[in-house]
Design brief:
single chain, CD59, 2 domains, 23% helix, four-stranded antiparallel beta sheet, binds 2-acetamido-2-deoxy-beta-D-glucopyranose
Length: 237
């Protein structure tokens, strides 16, 4: 009994600590363009890890990027090395042109992890990348991310299905978002009960929200709808 309790507490502690410390970084290996890194993320294992971005020049002189989590010690070694010397021009060799680390949270306006901006990179922000999960118990635990088609943004919905409340995360057209937002605004404050859409399969949509920063929909629908932007004033202004 006592031991079970201790194990339970330590699992809980480990979980909450890793949630606090878990830095989110872009993750990719040997891609030609920083934008090819945008569709995959890694969560660092502990507070000793940082986000990194390496820009490497191949013998063919092509530049490639690798990104992810890396220990602080290795980050510090690279930082010391680049501060000290400014040379390694031995042809027919892979050359590290830039190796940088960061520990700040994702950019507040774009939602892109800090390592997307290292080595003087400017990742594209015109395509919205969203969590895509059908029926998850907790929207923050959705681990699939995808780029949405142009003119679509992220959506997070709360659905009642099979006697359970579940979250559906994905992409949605901006005009559909606007119409739903209008319904929300028209309801008396505090009395909103969702779009009352019923699906063919009998599922009931209780809350439907949209947002447009990177992976912003990995959050609760009811908190998102209160800050949802209006895209077309004719529809929701
Ligand atoms: C955040 O993104 C904006 C828009 O792309 C950019 O101008 C800004 O420099 C970024 N900030 C940081 C801290 O990377
Ligand atoms: C984002 O905003 C939070 C709170 O306002 C701030 O602490 C954090 O430094 C900001 N992050 C960036 C990358 O600017
Ligand atoms: C806004 O919505 C109206 C009504 O659907 C549409 O006629 C108009 O073209 C839209 N405006 C823009 C800028 O998309």
């Amino acid at each position: 009994m006592n031991m079970l309790f201790t194990v339970g507490v330590s699992i809980l502690l480990t979980f909450s600590l890793s949630c606090v410390d878990g830095l989110t970084c872009l993750s990719c290996k040997g891609v030609a363009d920083i934008n090819d890194c945008l569709s995959s993320e890694a969560t660092c294992q502990n507070s000793n890890e940082e986000c990194y971005l390496d820009k490497t020049i191949l013998p063919s002189l092509q530049a490639v990027f690798s990104a992810g989590c890396r220990s602080k010690q290795v980050c510090d070694l690279f930082a010391a090395a680049s501060a000290g010397k400014r040379e390694t021009s031995r042809t027919k060799r892979t050359t590290v042109a830039c190796a940088e680390c960061c520990t700040t949270s994702s950019n507040n306006s774009t939602g892109i992890p800090c390592n997307g901006y290292l080595c003087k990179q400017k990742p594209k922000t015109d395509i919205t990348t969203c969590g895509v999960c059908d029926k998850v118990a907790d929207p923050t635990l959705c681990s699939v991310i995808q780029d949405c088609p142009p003119n679509e943004v992220c959506t997070s919905e709360l659905i009642f299905a099979n006697n359970q409340l579940v979250h559906r995360l994905g992409c949605e057209r901006k005009d559909v978002c606007d119409v739903t937002l209008k319904g929300y605004k028209d309801a008396h404050p505090g009395q909103y009960t969702g779009p009352k859409r019923k699906r063919v399969d009998g599922e009931i949509v209780i809350c439907s929200s949209c947002c447009d920063t990177r992976t912003c929909n990995m959050a609760d629908c009811k908190s998102l709808i209160n800050i949802q932007p209006c895209y077309n004033k004719t529809l929701c202004g």
